[in-house]
Every structure is written in structure tokens, then in C-alpha cells.
């Protein structure tokens, strides 16, 4: 039974997925669904910045394509439109128990719109009728009605070269400067005009950057920690993958190190 109904917004997104969202945002959306569906992440381990990063949710018949440099969502592709109910406006146009037959002998005809396209199967015997961009008919010569098998949402008018959407977060991919002074070292976010400093507490950092996506303790070894207020506290990281940085706090809960990274997968 289909429990979710996702809204299609051409050039914008589908359901919980927005074009321009970061990988971290999309992963959060996927993991927030109940039950969580399994998914796979594919990328080029040799040249990670040349090929798209793709998240494939087979149970949803869904692939999410990300720009390899900015790591933002640029194409939402449903290769099986019968797994999730999809509506355009107020009308549900995909989803249910409908399935195409003899898919192995079909080619695809792509009907394009600004911000999206729909794929229709074409029987091999009628393939030559639509090679020159001829409009897809309401029915084939044998009386069969074309049924959509795929759907894509993207920016622009051509699915073969989609545009790069603006990030959903205002200051995503912003320039960061490191200022090293005699008394303090600061990390300055030029877009949002905020900064953090070494020596700050987690509360001070969170007030500037927001809550971390995850927390990682450097070691569970009690000997690695220090006795604070009767308890043992070791070093730990606050991870901000969407900002490309990790912050290490010492046993006194002071920021002792900031690690800047590119977030290359692998």
C-alpha cells in the first residue's frame, strides 16, 4: 500500500527533496522516513569531482543526482513511477500497482517540459515513427495507450544538460577565512558575517553555527580523558559536514582544533 503522496514541482523538487539541497540534507530526509528504506551511494572513487554522486533508493524507484563539486542535488529521477504516489497539482498522476509489460523490447520517448520530463515506452515496431521528435500519440497504431515509465525533475529545459540549482541554504558553499592573531585564532564566514574562535565552548559555537549534525568521541579510553567535576571527559568532535568542518573540543569543553575539509566521498 502506498502511504506517501509526494508533490511534483517542476524545476523545484519532489516531495521532501529540493533541488539545490546538500547531500547531508537529503540523507537526513531519507533517514527521517519510517520505515527507513535502504539506499546506496555511488561515486567515482578515482576522480570524485568529475562524475555525479548518485543516491539510489531502489524501493522507491528513485535516483538522486548530485553535482560532484558542490554536492548539491541537481536531478531527481524516478526510473520506476509505480513505487511512490506522485501528484501534480491536486491530481495523483503516478503510483499504484500498474506495471509495464515487455520492457525489454521498449525504447524510450522523452516528453520534455521546463523543469522536468516524462519517459514513455515505445514498442520496437513503432520506434521509427518517433525518431525525428514527432509528438507522442494518444495511442499507438495497435490501439495501445503509451504509459509513462520514468520521470525527472531538474532546472532548465533539457534533461541531458540540466542547470545547476541555487543551494537551498543561503550561505552554503560560502568562502571561509582563517585569521591568526597573537591572542586568538578565528574562522570567519564571509557570507553570513559570523566567526568562531579557538577556545570557545560548544554553547558559543552552536550559537553561531547551529547544532552539529553529529558528535564523535575521539576515544572511549578513560585514560585519555581528564577528571572534571567528579567524572571523566575525553576529547570529542562536533561534525558539520554541510559546512565542511569538524570542531575538536578538549576535556575542558574548549574548541582546540578546527578541521577544514572538502567532504570528498570515499
From TrEMBL:
It comes from the Eukaryota. Belongs to the PHAF1 family. This is Uncharacterized protein. PANTHER family: PHAGOSOME ASSEMBLY FACTOR 1, UPF0183 PROTEIN.
